[in-house]
Amino acid sequence: RAVGGDESCITLTLSGGQVGPVAISGVDWLTLTQHGEYYYTACGTPGPKDTGTATLHAEATDWNATTDVTIDVVDPAITAADAEVPAGAPVSIPVTLSDFSRPELTASGLPPGLSYVRTSLDGTTGAIVGTVPYGNDGTWPVALKVDDSSPTGGSGTKTRDITLTVASHPDLALAIGGDATGQVGSPLTLDTAVSNTGSDPSTGTLSVDLDLPPGLGATSLGGSGWTCWLATGTCTHPGGLAVSSGLPAITISATPAS
Questions:
Q1: What is the widest separation between alpha-carbon atoms in the chain?
Q2: What's the rounded mean pLDDT across residues 133-146?
Q3: Are 4 and 47 in contact (CB under 8 A)?
Q4: Computed over its alpha carbons, how large is the radius of gyration of the chain?
Q5: What is the pTM of this model?
Q6: What whole-number distance in Å separates Cα of residue 93 and Cα of residue 164?
């Protein structure tokens, strides 16, 4: 087994009193070197075009002794993609390792709360998992590295850099309920509820703009903690809305005029 981009060597030894010369053929990226009467090495570095299976033919020409060696040239790869990571929410970012013999991956530069775990016994698949605490927004360059050695020859170190972007996401929702039908001249009561369904708290002033249909005139508008202006149908709140929480309702009283 040989790894693309890394030097590999094959040892050729003559026995039974045989001596060289020895010649090789079939693999053009190997160079033969003689170290003594009985000992040779064939060394070289395969390139991308050499990926696949090849047969090295070695022959001691004076003795009509031959041997064939099958060489599997692989190009190990780490497959992973850049990802956006919502703060405060569980994530699982898949990582796949291919053409390694004994893959052991390490990940450096991960945001707080994340780690790499195997998801298969042979180590060919894994994932970056965990939950990033709030307060870690920004871009995180992450280096994935595999140091791989093969029991049949060949070793290699492969790296892949990805970028994880940690982002906080408040997501405000507005629901309106109350009287669904009414009569002209009889007051209706409507309630509006603001909630945060996102992965991060909302900060800053919140505002709600109410646009009532023609013929429905508001007579009062307000709610605990809200400042409202009946003439414009606008209410504001100083803000600070935690994840999975809501603000006190805004109550609207309106009388149908037509």
A1: 118
A2: 90
A3: yes
A4: 35
A5: 0.56
A6: 10
